[in-house]
Amino acid sequence: MSNTRFDGITAVMSGGSRGIGLAIATELARGGANLVLLAKTDNPDPRLPGTIHTAVAEIEAAGGQAVGVVGDVRNDEDVARAARTAAETFGGIDICINNASVLNLSGTEDLPLKRFDLIQQVNVRGTFALTQACLPHLKKSASGHILTLSPPLNMSENWLGKHPGYTLGKYGMTLLALGFAAEFKDAGIASNCLWPETTIATAAVKNLLGGEEATAHARSPQVMADAAAAVLSHTPGYRTGRTLVDVDVLTEAGITDLTPYGGTEPLDYDIFVDPR
């Protein structure tokens, strides 16, 4: 857990009702940040823990201020409303976190086009839309950061051939993030990607990647939260245009003992990450 302060800093995040997004939001809140979450989960889902309302309560309990905007990152008006809410409630936007993502590991023959479209709409278009909506405010901030939860571009046949539809969606997020870094470098806005070295113990991993056995060999979402806080604690000029892995960020920050993040050996490497 970091001791970084984010007093007066406002972050807008897509998703965040649970899992990695909620862990990052809560960690920023511990440092005093304001959070605006754009998420769909208005009512409880029996398969998934938490709603946007329970997330707001957790964030506020951690020490920050939070507003939940019930909406869909695929809906332009919902995206605009999230950015507008942040500006009107907290006076601006300093951080845009592209967290919302659809996970579907079907191969090409088994992925319905409807699901392919959903992946691209949420992962790629959603990342573009939320960033675009936040940009006028990020340009006015002295702490302008875009953080996108997407992987390094691993072009090995192993990953390219496993699930091209999902790979396109996640690599599309990464390419956008790198594009934003180049496009807005002179505007003083940093844009980086962050991805976990190992699988993370979330409902998605439990439901889609192997149940309790999968989560047993995964680290806690807190490892991503601490890494995100470390990235966002620096001035925008410190680092931009990078595809970062959580453990590398923590190592740079002086955190080398990862046992507090849990996970039973052997830990499972995450998608797109090769054994080191």
Record the SSE blueprint.
Elements: E1 10-14, H1 19-30, E2 34-39, H2 52-61, E3 65-70, H3 76-90, E4 95-98, H4 113-138, E5 145-148, H5 157-160, H6 164-183, E6 190-195, H7 203-208, H8 211-216, H9 222-233, E7 243-245, H10 246-252
Parallel strand pairs: 1-2, 1-4, 2-3, 4-5, 5-6, 6-7
What does this structure look like?
There is one protein chain. The protein has 276 residues and is α/β, with parallel strands linked by helices. The protein is built from ten helices and seven strands. The chain has helices spanning 19-30, 52-61, 76-90, 113-138, 157-160, 164-183, 203-208, 211-216, 222-233, 246-252; strands spanning 10-14, 34-39, 65-70, 95-98, 145-148, 190-195, 243-245. It is globular. The two termini are 25 Å apart. The model has no long low-confidence stretch (mean pLDDT 95).
